[in-house]
Amino acid sequence: MAVKFFNQVVSELCLGKPELFGITATDTVYNALTVLKRSEDTYISVWESGEELAIRSSLCIGKICMTDVILFLCREENLVDPFKAFESPVSQILSQGVSVITHLDSNSSLLEAIDHILEGTHNLAIPIQNHRISGSRKKFLSNGRGYCWLTQEDVVRFLLNSIRVFSPIPSFAISSINIIEHNIMTVYHKEPASSAAGYFNRALDKQTSVAVVDEKHRLIGEISPFKLACCNETAAAAITALSVGDLMAYIDCRCPHEDLIQLVRIRLLKRNLARMSDLMDEFFHSSVYSSSSNCSSDDESGLRRNWGSGRNCPQRSWVIACSPDSSLVAVMIQALAHRVSCVWVVEDDYTLVGAVTFAGILKVLRSFAGCKQNKPEKDNYI
Fold it and tell me: Which residues contact 322 (CB under 8 A, 6 or more apart)?
């Protein structure tokens, strides 16, 4: 029964999916940022551009979210002048040599789609059948077809809707089905957030999160690509200037505390990152800045006392977690309800055990189909 289920075509998952809207790889980072802020979606698609468009179909070659922009600004060469970095082409943000988008025909099987995801694909670009293309999209679509895309979340949600097909595995405790990932990224809450930038990039690439722990390895929060994607570009300044614990506070609330904002600005100025400080000014026009131009170490010490930076008992941030005894179906529902790709597994005292990810869920349920199918022709890959 499961084998027949996996033979369904991916077009079944595309019903009601909106047509992709995006930018070209030669557009600037600033243009991408403008489109992101106007879009209702977390990601926007990136399409190839150039003379090839005249002779072949345009392809979706990547995707961009606010997290990409933030981490791009955190690069050493962009910290000095983030406004100059905004003039860079979007192609500088895209993963070099790594394909995160795969084009599939609408009659491809669900099993084939899952295999691509397990091999590292983030999104599947699927042509929309019998769809009339609007004029604004035609510059991307020389073959006259519109596209939608499928994500890990879409596929896991589809599987959950038919979870009885996989019975009895979904009712088993996650600790009993080899789904908990123990090789996870963790960072101590007092460490500088900038020292964990590599982890943040890896989390974005692997579609997972970075766990924030205390000295007893208890989970107190996370830094996830999803949370960063809900921020604005000033999060790059926060990553540069704050500890991991303070960064959590910065990104967990849409309006960071004024003392925390000023602390970021003071530390940026002490590092001669005046242009990054100017980026902060564009978003936070508060009286706190009018008195901070001539800042000193005493100012920073006072702000740290007011804010509580470096406190020994950090406040636990909002985070999605489960027990090793939780059932697979319960974890699936939990992840989909909160729209997170990573659910932390903890003991009763919040000691971190590991994580369950969408990719891990797909791997377990895919095992019902047996051996992998033969790979499609190479032309299907970007």
Answer: 174, 330, 331, 334, 343, 344, 345, 346, 356
